[in-house]
Every structure is written in structure tokens, then in C-alpha cells.
Amino acid sequence: MEFENMIKLIQTVSASELDSFCYEENGIRIKCGKKSGKTVMVHDSAENSAYCDGMNAGGDVQSKDCTDIASPLVGVFYEAPAEGEDPFVQVGDRVKKGQVLGIIEAMKLMNEIESDADGIVREIRVHNTDTVEYGQILFVIEKETIGEAAS
Q1: % of the chain at pLDDT higher than 90
Q2: Which of 34, 96, 109, 134 matches a 20 to 30 Å C-alpha distance to 68?
Q3: CATH number for the domain running over 3-144
Q4: Where are the domains of the chain?
Q5: What average pLDDT does this structure show over 89-115?
Q6: What does the alpha-carbon distance between residue 80 and residue 64 come to, in Å, rounded to a whole number?
Q7: Backbone angles phi, psi at 21, to 5 degrees
Q8: How many Å apart are CA 123 and CA 66, to the nearest integer?
Q9: Distance between CA atoms of residues 39 and 127, nearest Å
Q10: What is the DSSP letter of 7?
Q11: 3-class SS at 58?
Q12: pLDDT number for residue 9
């Protein structure tokens, strides 16, 4: 999908009464959803991250159920609610669906980036105060099932 068409799609979903929308083409899936008036974008693919497609001890490919959290807009990424405070999350942290992972400042507005699944933060691909692009992968979350969370 062309970048311009992707922007139009997100704007259309944002302006509609839809709660979420999923589009898949050539093995790439784009999910747009609204929560409390916020638009979030999640990018899933067969090659999410080095962690999710790692090798196990036997040398076999070990595929884990991971999801990438992508930036829904261009702006400046902040890892903490304020300068000098602890980051929202770190690699290895267990997160809940809807939990704030970071903030993107765009046009003097602070936009919370939330997890779309329960799981464990496996990668943080940006640093504090990095300028991020639309669609840039910010976090990789390994999804957890209820049984795994209890162990």
C-alpha cells in the first residue's frame, strides 16, 4: 500500500464510527483502532523482530507470537512522563493491554502510545527524544496467554 493511501485510510477510520479496522496485503497486516478517541497503529508481519523469530537450543526456528507497536504519527518520542522520571517501560517488563508505553509529542500535543496486548516488552527500538516517523516500529511485545502470565 502506498504511504499516501495509508494516511487516507487512517484518517478515514479516525473520522468514522468504526472502533477498529484491519487491512492485509502481501503478508503485512495493518490494524487501526480507536480507544478513548485515540488512534493507534499496529504493524504485524512474519518477521517482527530478532527475538520473535529466534533460534532455540536445537537450532530450530522458534516463532513467538509478537506484535510491533508502531508510531501513529510523526513527532518526538518520550520514554517517561517527565524529564528525570522513570521510563514508562523497559525491556523485560510485563505490560497490560492499554498500558502506556511512551509518549509522542506532535504539534505541542502529547499522544500516549499504548500496548495493544498483554505481554512482555522484548524490544524498544527508539531512544528518549528521538524524532520518529509515521509507521516506525517503537516497541516489540511478546504476547502472553493467560496460562503463561500465571507462571
Answers
A1: 47
A2: 109
A3: 2.40.50.100
A4: 3-144
A5: 94
A6: 28
A7: -155, 140
A8: 10
A9: 22
A10: H
A11: coil
A12: 75
The grid cell for 100 is 502506556
Q: Compute the distance between CA of residue 149 and CA of residue 89 in angstroms, rounded to an integer.
A: 17
Do 69 and 113 contact (CB within 8 A), yes or no? yes
Q: What amino acid occupies position 6?
A: M
Place of cell 478517541: 37
Q: How far apart are CA 5 and CA 142, in angstroms?
A: 29
Q: Are 63 and 48 in contact (CB under 8 A)?
A: no
pTM of the shown model: 0.59
**DSSP H/E element including 95:** strand 94-95
Pair 120, 92: CB distance under 8 Å: yes
Any idea of the CA torsion for 111, 133, 70, 91, to the nearest 10 degrees? Answer: -90
The grid cell for 32 is 487501526
End-to-end CA distance of the chain: 40
